[in-house]
């Protein structure tokens, strides 16, 4: 199996703040196990949290987490992960915690600090790392959400930059490391046939859907501080739009890609209340930690415009929510209908025109929908999808890839300071000034008002309701 090439400035220790939390259990421990299987976990891992645990207790938790994620088929790799784990107990507001961490790190000189902790503690931990010299020659990974509005994002950036240089700050968005998301970038610029039509002249609208069939699952207290707009749309979905809409980079470099995606985010028109439909699934207010009169949205749909030459006038429709009809993520790039209807059954409504479909999860696929004539004398056809399905076993998970990249100092799949602030600037006007959340039934596709938002462009294409597929399997 091909191993990741080592950076000469690779981190020599991983510090995981929040090691007893859900993110560590569900994502980070399994990622460390996958790295050990590939031979890329070659540093000690120091977990930090306030719980009173021993090294042995932490290792037991990690083993249980890895077992919950899937079958343990490499005992040597499991032993490697467990032997790498060490625990440092302490309160993040107590300076002695960081002194204990410094002592535990011993001879390590280039640690990477992963902040898998509540956002309210980001600044506290970053400043404490600086005060105890733990930031020298180190890196920091900051989980989303990076801020909760434009002002707080700017302040957090200021604090982070006062302790770490920009190239040592890794603002994580695990969606950017998904293979299907990376394929959007590759498809656009590795092929020439798209460029002539990838603009306002041929694209009628763009839809992005990220749906989850489950609710907040005991995380009501957290969701009360975030909501769908902050939790998903401002970061995950905006990043997808930026990759879909960006101009070609002028040279082969992820720095150039970051510049182009930041330009798209800066060109997004700030939202107004009538651009946004907020929803809340029935029963959310009964969740533990949720206010009885909560107006926090568990669903959000919005209409977005990009004020650029390429995309002027093209609406981008984004929606995401919990307790919806299925768990899936798809992008639909809806093309305009032919200028003249030569056949009675073609392009009668906007949704009858051709489209590109990017399926992002639960599995990945790229499809082109076209009309094909039926057998016979009559000029009547059906829409068929030509589908390239590209599921590869043993590919890196997003967290495995991002952990390895951060340890190598590779910021290509992380978010830049200006992009974070530009995204917040788009949603800032509606974070506090918005229409009330509309109730919707669990298992539906959200409140009916979301359908009205997109009605002029033919309505939503729900994942799983596409045309008949004709799969084209890769060789």
Key structural traits:
globular, 13 helices, single chain, 6-stranded parallel beta sheet, Dihydrodipicolinate Reductase, domain 2, Rossmann fold, alpha/beta, about 475 residues, 10-stranded mixed beta sheet, 2 domains
Structure, described:
There is one protein chain. By secondary structure, the protein is an alpha/beta fold. The protein folds into 2 domains: about 15-145, 3-Layer(aba) Sandwich (Rossmann fold); about 175-470, Dihydrodipicolinate Reductase, domain 2 (2-Layer Sandwich), CATH 3.30.360. Helix content is about 35%, strand content about 20%. The protein contains 13 helices and 16 strands. The chain has helices at about 20-40, 55-70, 75-85, 95-105, 120-130, 150-165, 180-190, 220-225, 230-245, 255-265, 400-410, 415-430, 450-455, and strands spanning about 15, 45-50, 85-90, 110-115, 140, 170, 205-210, 275-280, 300-305, 315-320, 330-335, 355-360, 365-375, 380-390, 440, 470. The strands form 2 sheets. A 10-stranded mixed beta sheet has the order 15-8-9-10-7-11-12-13-14-16, sandwiched between helices. The chain has a 6-stranded parallel beta sheet with strand order 3-2-1-4-5-6. Strand 12 and strand 13 form a beta hairpin. Helix 1 (about 20-40) crosses helix 11, helix 5 (about 120-130) runs parallel beside helix 6 (about 150-165) and helix 10 (about 255-265) packs parallel to helix 12 (about 415-430). The protein is globular. The protein starts with 12 loop residues before the first strand and ends with a strand.
